[in-house]
TrEMBL record:
Record GO biological process: intrinsic apoptotic signaling pathway in response to DNA damage by p53 class mediator; positive regulation of transcription by RNA polymerase II; smoothened signaling pathway
CC annotations in GO: cytoplasm; PML body
Key words, A-Z: ATP-binding, Kinase, Nucleotide-binding, Serine/threonine-protein kinase, Transferase
Organism name: Seriola dumerili
Taxonomic lineage of the native organism: Eukaryota, Metazoa, Chordata, Craniata, Vertebrata
GO molecular function: ATP binding; protein serine/threonine kinase activity; protein tyrosine kinase activity; SMAD binding; transcription coactivator activity; transcription corepressor activity
Family according to the record: Belongs to the protein kinase superfamily.
One Pfam match: Pkinase
Origin: domain of life: Eukaryota
Name by which UniProt lists this protein: Protein kinase domain-containing protein
Amino acid sequence: SGESKITRAAAGQRGQQMKMGTCCGCAHRERGHYNIGKYEVLPSNTGAYFVEKYLGCGGYGKVAQCTRLDNKVKMAVKIVRNDMTWAGKREVAVLQKLRKLDQDKNNLVRFAEHFEYKGHVCLAFEMLDINIYDFIRSRDFQPLHLSEIRVITQQMLVALNALKSVGLSHADVKPDNIMLVNHHQQPFRVKLIDFGLAANISKIHAGTLIQAIGYRAPEVILGLPLDEAVDMWSLGCVLAFMYLGQNLKDKDSSNPSWRLNTEAEYMLLTGSKTRRYRGIFDKLTSLNDITKTRPEVNDTTESEDTQAFLSLLKRMLQVDPQKRITLSEALGHRFITMKHFPHDANPNPYMSAAFTTITKCQLEESSVKFNQNKENVFEEDSTILLTADQDYKLMQSKRY
């Protein structure tokens, strides 16, 4: 049988297993990680997984592409570090909670089961395609089209709204954690993955260090009370990344990676100089400037779509979380609903392309309903990314 052939192959290779490299190429990060062996068989509570190849790793564990021996379905198995068993069990608890939701309709990775193997917690998920960061990197960091950004954003808003419906915040939204499902069959159909940092909204305490540095909300950096608004900030940074083809903010600096004051003001507040950032960040004085990174738009519909995109982005990147757009407001925003498109029986090529992107993506209606509030009137012209002094100083005053 096919299963016995795979099993025999695994047994034949057991004595000469090929270890699949060091974690992220850094040997010093290997502590606690399991050295996944190619052709290894991972027994679970419901069957067994035949390891085919190493996919990557994160802070909590490694991920391997496997085939279930009983049904030959490809799966992604996350093997958690043995010194972070608590993190694996916490993620399992979150994933069990998400099983109350329709994971396909709500754009959440399907969780199959968890088991233990040689002292490591293992989590089995459906096999997806490629994450947004690697996808854009494969295109030499060419930005996405607004119609593509729209469908990805809508799906992530649905996913985050579903999490909120069960009282959860993801707390680690970034391009690496947004996966294309099957880009060939369903272009730009995506799912949210990696719930290692997800937590009950009511239990996210002020001062908790969450989120990747380049996607970290101001209130996290300042040690202020936290809620699901942190995910909206991160998603706004993802939108900027997809539009620019590069991070809006420095993702590697351990210092606050967004500048809300002039260099002199930062020096006065912290006693240290700001780091001089290279690339797109230095060229911006407001979010309006990001349109300068693209060719000039002559089509009226595309111009209006760009303004709608900027409107949503500005509201996502509001420094004060109380002023930041909510999930229900974002789902009803004109950039997502395309209400700003003219009602025309013969749509122009730009509109046709936008509708085609939605059709090819094969979106399903979320099983979690949301209050589709009317888009609030919002004063945007004064929204400055790099010098939002009033909000920043007000937020700083709340720390004491």
